[in-house]
Structures are given as structure tokens and as C-alpha cells.
Amino acid sequence: MSRTPVRYRSADEDSGRWLGFPFRPGDIVISTRSKSGTTWMQMICALLILQDPRLPAPLAHLSPWLDWLIMPRDEVYARLAAQAHRRFIKTHTPLDGVPLDPRVTYVVVGRHPLDMAVSLYHQGANIDRERLRLLTGQPAPEIPRPARRAPREWLLAWIEGDQDPRLELDSLPGVMHHLSDAWARRGEPNVVLAHYDALCADLPGEMRSLADRLDIAVPEERWPELVRAATFSAMRAAAGRASPDPAGILKDHEAFFRRGTSGAGRDLLSEGEMARYRDRARTLADPDMLTWLHREGGRAPGA
Question: Which end of the chain, N or C, is more open, meaning fewer C-beta atoms within 10 Å of its C-beta?
């Protein structure tokens, strides 16, 4: 039975751009929520496919964000059509909003929502809002943006937010919707779930596991340099080519790779506030998915 993907739209994204995209056998779609390891997984896929830490082009050109309205749809399609290597494409759209093709592998990355939210908060200060507005053709705001709240105050409000997950994908309900949809598909042979904290704790092992799932053979002698190139320090050192900013939206490329560890969200909250977060999470997602999502990862560098 054919299915019509859900359409997700925001000021700078439109998942409808996937409709009609000509997939190739072996394509990889990387589907994540914002600040959940998107760029990290793109880099890992680039390294596994190209097997050279010296990438031939900026990561955002090798792995374009297909839904992003900043880049014309036909230009993105043409860039992907010209690629001779195995393609790996970025999206922030949940899998129910993307055409599902049995020849394609879909990689979904999960991250503890509190850590994702804190990273999202800091990312907000690094975006040139005026340039983004101009590039997307949005009208100038009629009233000034409200004063920026302190991180803990913002995070508490984020936990309590009750937005429609299909309209506010970076809300807590939106995060849970994205990951719950992927969790329900985890038994499908072409759906891979990865966890940010697992990548932090054992990057070599997780890269090898992903290579197996993607049916990519890597000579044993190549592994050390490929793993080094996927570390937080290496990606931050190459921020100009690794950050997802082909249109000059970010104020500081290095600041995009801000911390690269887990636990920032939990560090901000009291025990009672953490209990409130867990109560909210239980109303939004399956217990088994939450057990996977809330694993206590290490604080080793990530990206």
C-alpha cells in the first residue's frame, strides 16, 4: 500500500521537497532532530564512504540538507545527481515525512532531549537571524524579539511546552514524536538507530557497527585515522569545512561545536525538576523507547 508522507514546514524548511526525489540504490538518509548529532553522523558517513579524512569538499556540500529552503531545490537535486560516490543526505524531518524506499538506508540519531535542548538554546545565539530572514524572504518582525532568558529558565519552559509536535519539531513533544516514529520502525532492515551517548562512549565501535549496517568494508589500517577525523577536536579544528553553513547563517563556525559532551541539561536542573521532566516524557513516549533514549552516557567528546 502506498503512503503519503506527512508534510512538515517551517520558516526555512519544507519536507515536500523530498517528493519526487530520484533515489539511487545505496543512498543514505540521515534523519535527526536539531542538535542531536546530525553533523557528527554526516562526518562519520563521509569518512566511511570516502575513506579519507581529507574531504574533497565542505561537508555541507557533500551531504546537503535537502529540505532547507535557503538552497534552491533544483540546485540541491543537481548537486546530488552529479555525485559519483554513495550519497548521504541530511534531513531534520521524521521518517513519516520522507519517502521510504527499500533501497535506501535511513539513519536516525537520538540524544537525551535535555542535552539537545541546551545545545539548541546556545545555538540560537549563534544564528544571524537577519541574514536568515532575508534568505528565506520573511518579513521584518513587527515587534523586537523578546529578551533572551537564562538557560535554566528557558529549559524549564521547554519541558512544560505543549506544542503540536508536527508544527514545532524542536519542542519536547516534537523530539519525542521524531524518535518514537523511528523507534516503531527499528525492526525494519533499512532503518538504523544510533545514540549520541553511544558515539561518545565508543566512537570506534559505533563506527564499525555502522559500517557493517551500511555494508561498507574498511581496510583495518584505515580505521585509526578515520576515527580521529570523526572526533570532536578534529571536527572543531576543521569547523570552516565541517559546520553546516553553506549560506553564512552562523556567526561563529567554531561555536557550532560548543561542548561535545553529555549531561549539560541534567546539570542545570534540581532533582525535583528532573522528576518533572521524566513525568512529562512518560506522557509522550513508549517506556522502552525512553529507556533507550535516557541511557546515562559518558562525557567523552562528541560533536
Answer: N
Domain covering 15-293, topology: Rossmann fold (3.40.50)
Give me the DSSP letters along the chain: ---PPPP-B-SSBBGGGGTT----TT-EEEEE-TTSSHHHHHHHHHHHHH--SS-SS-HHHHS-BTTBTTS-HHHHHHHHHH--SPPEEEE-S-GGGS---TTSEEEEEE--HHHHHHHHHHHHTTB-HHHHHHHHTPPPPSSPPPPPPPHHHHHHHHHH----TTT-TTSHHHHHHHHHHHHHTTTSTTEEEEEHHHHHH-HHHHHHHHHHHTT----GGGHHHHHHHTSHHHHHHTHHHHSS-TTS-BS-HHHHS----S-HHHHHS-HHHHHHHHHHHHTTS-HHHHHHHT---------
| Cα 115 to Cα 102: distance, rounded to the nearest angstrom | 32
Residue 112 annotated among the catalytic residues of the structure: no
Q: Residue length, the chain?
A: 303
Residue-wise pLDDT tens digits, 205-247: 999 999 999 999 999 999 999 999 999 889 888 777 776 766 6
- What are the residues facing 108 on neighbouring strands? 31, 193
Digit-coded pLDDT (tens) for 92-129: 999 999 999 999 999 999 999 999 999 888 876 656 66
Distance CA 103, CA 90 (A): 17
- Cell of residue 138, nine digits: 520573511
Residue labelled with grid coordinates 522528576:
275
Q: Of residues 92, 177, 178, 195, which has the active-site annotation?
A: 92
Write the pLDDT tens digit of every residue in 19-66: 999 999 999 999 999 999 999 999 999 999 999 999 999 999 999 999
Q: For the stretch 186-222, what's the b/e string if a residue is b when 16 or more beta carbons lie within 10 angstroms of its beta carbon?
A: eeeebbbbbbbbbbbbebeebbeebbeebeeeeeeee
